[in-house]
Amino acid sequence: MIRTIDIHKSFGDQEVLKGITTEFFPGKTNLIIGRSGAGKTVLLKILVGLVSPTSGDIFYGDVNFSQLNKKEMRTIRMKVGMLFQGSALFDSMTVEENIRFPLDMFTHMTWKEKAMQVDSCLERVSLGQVHKKYPSEVSGGMQKRVGIARAIVLNPEYLFCDEPNSGLDPKTAIVIDELIRDITIDKNITTVINTHDMNSVMEIGDNIVLVHEGRLAWRGDKSQVLESTDETLQQFIFASPFLQRLRASALERSQEG
């Protein structure tokens, strides 16, 4: 579990986060949602340790991550996997070299052990026969899956995903969502996803955190979204006419029941 307690973050005179207190649970897909500029990306970067909060605390389990020195933070980061928005694969490396990179950097495994781990991760994301291909030789959806394989190669306890469906067609986006959810459940990972994809919210939103103007505006799960009367959530979620009709239909069914 990850907990944040009264997280504030300012850049100069601009206060971006204004006291975020929330929790992210293991074995759950925890989604951070919000409009552009709401502060959700800054919050994700603070959780990972890429940005330091101005004040407040972040706990990984019982460990106060905010109070650790660089050496101690490295111990926590060894338990963290990261899927970047653009996959962030190395163009000059093959698929297997990209996935093996964290093993080369952070472990003393033998070459055979690394090869077995790479094979296992590729199998987990349903990719075969692509070991020797370069990122430019596979599709965008396959690049995302390679990115996921690299993110889980160190068997992380925590997985962070920044807009994992960015640039993908709807069908491929669903595949990526389901893959992340299944890995999260199978490995009991605390997965935190920064997204604006409403399909992700409604399909895999086990724990949804809405950030609005730097504050925690709403928290719940996908089953509570359509029936929520929170005005800020409604304005964000139901900007889509399709979702407006979906919500109206859900309310009618609940009233009939």
UniProtKB/TrEMBL annotation:
Keywords: ATP-binding, Nucleotide-binding, Transport. Residues 2-238 form the ABC transporter domain. PROSITE patterns: ABC_TRANSPORTER_1, ABC_TRANSPORTER_2. SMART domains: AAA. It holds the Pfam family ABC_tran. GO terms for molecular function: ATP binding; ATP hydrolysis activity. PANTHER family: INTERMEMBRANE PHOSPHOLIPID TRANSPORT SYSTEM ATP-BINDING PROTEIN MLAF, PROTEIN TRIGALACTOSYLDIACYLGLYCEROL 3, CHLOROPLASTIC. This is Phosphonate-transporting ATPase. It comes from Haliscomenobacter hydrossis (strain ATCC 27775 / DSM 1100 / LMG 10767 / O). The lineage of its organism: Bacteria, Pseudomonadati, Bacteroidota, Saprospiria, Saprospirales.
